[in-house]
Amino acid sequence: MKYKLAKYFPGKTEEASMEESYHTITNFNFILIDINEIRYLVEDSTIKLMAIMNTPISDKIKQQSEELIFKLSQVLKISQLWMNVQYKVINQIY
Description:
By secondary structure, this protein is an alpha+beta fold.
């Protein structure tokens, strides 16, 4: 899985995979600039797990699938919160 990150140095920005420029926040940071791939993988994995749950399988596997679906939804929520916080911090500084 690839994460789209931007590398920050004082006075200049080296970008990993995006054309837009972001200003430097501190001496050295990595900033998540896109979660579309994370969103796609979480949704794809959730659909596959739901398909597994709809088959005649043991209760233990169903319980594990439900736990994984919950954990995947948490990953997506945390990623979205991370993006929101970063944008708010960047907007407050600049």
